[in-house]
Every structure is written in structure tokens, then in C-alpha cells.
Amino acid sequence: MAIFLKSAESKFTAQMNTSLNFIEEIETALQNDDIHQIIKYSSVEQISYILYKYPHIIPEDLLISLLKNRDTYISYKSFSLLTDLYKNQEHRKEYLVFFKYMLKEDSNYEEKNELLSLFVIFISGKLNMNYDLEKRKSLIINDENIVKILDDLIFIKEVQYNILLILYVLSFNREYIDKLRDIFLKKIICILKDKSREKILRISYSVLVNILKYTNLSINQIYELRKITLTLCDLNISDEDLRNNLKISKEVLEKKHAEYSIEKYTEDLFRGILEDHDYHYDEVFWNTNMDHINKNIVDIIKILKKYLKSNNNEWVCLACNDIYMIIKGSPNITRLINKHQVNDVLYELTKSENDEVRFKAIQALYASIFSEWN
Q1: Using one digit for the tens of pLDDT, what is the confidence trace for 294-350?
Q2: Which of 161-165, 242-246, 327-331 has the lowest mean pLDDT?
Q3: Lowest mean pLDDT among 5-14, 70-79, 203-212
Q4: First CA to last CA across the chain, in angstroms?
Q5: What is the tens place of the pLDDT at every residue in 55-68?
Q6: Are 309 and 345 in contact, with CB atoms under 8 Å apart?
Q7: Structural domain of residue 349, as residue ranges?
Q8: Residue 327 to residue 306: CA distance in whole angstroms
Q9: Rounded-to-integer distance, Cα 130 and Cα 63, Å
Q10: CA quadruple 145, 147, 148, 150: dihedral, nearest 10
């Protein structure tokens, strides 16, 4: 049980110890009357006491109805008891309706964490003949509202650990891993840049190891993750699980990084993918692959020109850089640069208000003009 319910119940117990008549009335009623009737006519205090003292006698349908109770303890305690119940049987849709509604509500982070920690239990049950756990997980990952809630909350530090824990539980199934990567990996990369919280790093890398194991990453994702991972590997990390996951991630990322080829670069280029990676700035990469570039040079120049004319500053900078590196590797290419009027586009970009765009454009244009003179 998480902090919110524990705190509420400690206060509740202290109050009950001063109300012996109140307790006797409830216990007498429980011996003689139907639990549904007792709950129907009981006060908030009486219902709270019954939930706390006699949770095992309250049936599922009554717990479902109590989810709608305006008292926070009653509704959350009912959700907790239903979570225990659903370890061994199919859940009812009202359970998820309550979960989604309460996370959207303006509740405090302690209450949100209560729900999220219980939800981890809900999707982490052992294999059971009474219900299909994988079907339950599939329902969750394909519920757009739940996914959006998790996505919206993942940067909130107070609930971040439990959000990542939910993603970790879901990351063991190959069927869901592409969706987890597409929706959450970019944000997980941002989270990893904060090196101050080992607990968050540990669970983040636990998710990442499964993503690396089961799915492919973009070249930019490999580049970013490799850079972060190498930095973390140089730190004095005390957490053993984190150290192990860093080691696994480093090995996989180094292998994926080394596999990147000029063929993959041109393939991505023509598919509309131009992402930051250290090969863009690696003279060895360009010089050793000039034969392949020269075979496709006209098409490469044309497509890079399209990137130059885009409204995406990152694309523009990378395209300027790649033109610069190609000219350095093979100065004769400047005649084709001129023929396809790339210099004209570069000249216009030297007037850009963006400092990086302006610098990269000047660099590429200077290389083109200088090579032509020589």
C-alpha cells in the first residue's frame, strides 16, 4: 500500500480508538445485516471503518459502486481492494474508468502516485488460469487515453518513477515495444540527461534494455543514447542494477553505431530522414565512402538541396554540413553544385536569422567557391 492510504489509515485508527460505541454499533450490524444494506445507510466514517477493518467481506460489485464515493479515502481504498481482487480474476471496465478519470482530475501527486503504484500491481500479476494477463496489458497499451495520460505525466518528477515502472512492465512484450519506442523513447532520452537521480536512471535503463533488445532505433536515437550512456559509464555509479544495464546498453549501442554505413545514410536521405549523428562530422566516414557518393552524386545533391529549402533548421544545418564534407572529400563536385544552383540556396541561407544556419551555410558556400577557384 502506498503512502496516501497508509497516512489516511493511521489518522483513522487514532480516531476510532476514541469511539468504542461507534465500533460496537458497526460490528453488531455486520453480524445481523446484509453488507449492501449496511453500506447503503452508513456514514462516511462508518464505511471507511468497514473498508479498513473488514475488507474481505465486501464483494466486487459493492467496491465498484464505492469508486464513485466522494470521499477520497473510500474511493481509493476501494480501488486498492479491487486491485488485490484482480490479481486473480478478470477486471471490470469501471476499474479503468476510475483510474483514467482520477489521473485526469486535479488531484495531488501523492494521490496520483497511489493510483499509479496500484496500477503497476494490476498489470504485473503472475500467470493465472482465471484471466489473460497479456490481454490485459494489450488493452492498456492500446487505450489511447491511458497512453496519453502516461505521456503527459512522464516529466512530472513526483510521479515519474511509477510511470516508468508501468512502461517497464509493458516493455517485456515484443508486440508493444514499437509503440513504447515511438511514444516514449524521445522523452526517456530527455530524462536520462538528468544524471542526479540514480533511482530514475535505473528504471529508465531497465526500460531501455528491453527496447534495445526487441526493436530498431533511428540513427539519431542511437547517437543520443550512446553519448549519454558513455558519459554515465564514466561516473561512479553505486547502483549495481544500473551499472549492469549501462554495460548492456553500451555494448548494444556501440554495435549499432558501428553498423551504420553510407548505404544506410543514402537510404535514409531519400526516405526523408536526416538526423544528427557524429558520422556527419567524421572526415574518415566521408573520405572512405566517396566512391559510393560519386556513383549517386546527382541524386544526393538534388535531395540535399531539398533539405536546404525546408523550414526545418536542423535539416538545413545538417544538409549544409554534408555538402561541405562532400566538397572537402571530392572538390570536383563543385561543378555539379553550381549546375544545380545549390550555391544560390546557400547564399540565401547566409542571411538567416538563425546563427547556426548562417554559420553552416557560410561554411558550405566558402568551401564550394574556394574549390572552384582552385
Answers
A1: 999 999 999 999 999 999 999 999 999 999 999 999 998 999 999 999 999 999 999
A2: 327-331
A3: 5-14
A4: 75
A5: 888 999 999 999 99
A6: yes
A7: 279-373
A8: 18
A9: 20
A10: 120
pTM for the model stands at 0.78
* 350 belongs to a structural domain: yes
Q: Is residue 312 part of a domain?
A: yes
- Which amino acid does the sequence have at 165? L
Q: Which three cell numbers stand for residue 155?
A: 516529466
Is residue 316 assigned to a domain?
yes
Counted domains in the chain: 1
User: Which grid cell is 285?
Assistant: 566516414
CA dist., res. 191 & res. 186, Å (int): 9
How would you write the chain as a 3-class SS string? CCHHHHHHHHHHHHHHCCCHHHHHHHHHHHHHCCHHHHHHHCCHHHHHHHHHHCHHHCCHHHHHHHCCCCCHHHHHHHHHHHHHHCCCCCCCHHHHHHHHHHHHCCCCHHHHHHHHHHHHHHCCCCCECCECHHHHHHHHHCCHHHHHHHHHHCCCCCCHHHHHHHHHHHCCCHHHHHHHHHHHHHHHHHHHCCCCCHHHHHHHHHHHHHHHHHCCCCHHHHHHHHHHHHHHHCCCCCCHHHHHHHHHHHHHHHHHHHCCCHHHHHHHHHCCCCCCCHHHHCHHHHHHCHHHHHHCHHHHHHHHHHHHCCCCHHHHHHHHHHHHHHHHHCHHHHHHHHHCCHHHHHHHHCCCCCHHHHHHHHHHHHHHHHHHHC
Spatial separation of the C-alpha atoms in residues 211 and 143, rounded to whole Å: 20
Contacts 24+ apart (CB under 8 A), 3-8: 3/110, 3/113, 3/114, 4/76, 4/110, 4/111, 4/113, 4/114, 5/73, 5/76, 5/77, 5/80, 5/114, 8/72, 8/73
What CATH number has the domain bearing residue 330? 1.25.40.150
Residue 267 CB partners (closer than 8 Å, separation 6+):
none
